Amino acid sequence: MIPLQPPRRLIDVQIDDETVRVPEGATILDACRAAGKDVPTLCHGDTLTPKNACRVCVVEVEGARTLAPACSRKAEAGMKVGTGSERARHSRKVVLELLGSSVDLSTTPRAAEWTAEYGADPARFGADAATVEQPAKVDNDLYVRDYSKCILCYKCVDACGEQWQNTFAIGVAGRGFDGTISTEFDAPLTDSACVYCGNCVEVCPTGALSFKTEFDMRAEGTWDESRQSETTTVCSYCGVGCNLTLHVQDNKIVKVTSPHDNPVTKGNLCVKGRFGYGYV
Ligand code: SF4
Ligand code: SF4
Ligand code: FES
Questions:
Q1: Does the keyword Metal-binding apply (predicted)?
Q2: Is there a contact between 202 and 257 (Cβ–Cβ < 8 Å)?
């Protein structure tokens, strides 16, 4: 089903040497993707208002003094964008070096590929570089918070808070270098307002938030996405009819996600749809 949208005027934008046509209101990132350009993103979420936290998506806009974050800057008619200029590539390289030196990016999709592509050397700050290393928080049977992998993109906070769930179980604690994602008073999730919808897990770009099943299987070395199949079906618990994507390995459901392009749920689920698959 394709939901009807109000008609939008189309504008022409020049991406590198190619002119693409995108609807008014589209971002530079949308235009780059329409032109087939692979601009890296980390904090951008396709179901969330851009936060501009990571700046790995920067591009050069002709006439602009500073580099523009492609994920949030709106495309304008006649805009000329350079996606791979020396300055943009250097900026992305430094972002990847800073993140790579302080955060465990081992489960961030494509991080290793981008690190190689941009020639980033996270080790160049030396062995004493500050890191966010800490033990993973395993305090419930459904999902794990491993903040050694957290890039402070705030997606989980937005998903849990005013953008989707309105539960406000997790937020930012501390300021500046001491900023972390936390529950109130750093309590275990079981003592927090969390309702275990897992919508934070759905949007986390690094694997800092993960299903307990995935966390355990990674620890024992059995997690293997190449052996997993994905089947999208309809949740059987209530009449809303949310879409569930079941990730199955060795004939067992290992995690549940939800399609972001669903016009009703936009990737969000409740605890039953997300974690209540034991009966299957
Ligand atoms: S599972 Fe839901 S309620 Fe709990 S922290 Fe995540 S988004 Fe918030
Ligand atoms: S836990 Fe994940 S979603 Fe939340 S701020 Fe950290 S990296 Fe972003
Ligand atoms: S992806 Fe654009 S600022 Fe993070």
A1: yes
A2: yes
pTM (2 d.p.): 0.94
Regarding the beta carbon of 199 and ligand 1, being less than 6 Å apart is answered yes
Whose Cα sits closest to atom 6 in ligand 1? 200
What CA–CA distance (Å, rounded) separates 201 from 54?
19
Residues of the chain with pLDDT under 70: 1-4
Q: Report whether residue 159 contacts ligand 1, using a CB cutoff of 6 Å.
A: yes
Take residue 187 and report the two structure tokens written for it: 């309590």
**Lookup result for tokens 């309702």:** 195
Task: Tokens for 106, please give them.
Answer: 């081992």
Q: Which residues line ligand 3 (CB under 6 A)?
A: 41-44, 52-57, 69, 71
Residues 6+ apart with CB under 8 A from 93: 118, 119, 120
Helix (H) or strand (E) holding 215: helix 212-219
The Cα 29–Cα 31 span in angstroms is 5
pLDDT digits (tens, 9 = 90+) for 128-181: 999 999 999 999 999 999 999 999 999 999 999 999 999 999 999 998 888 999
Indicate the burial class of 267 (C-beta count within 10 angstroms; 0-12, 13-18, 19 or more). buried
Read off the DSSP letter of residue 34: H
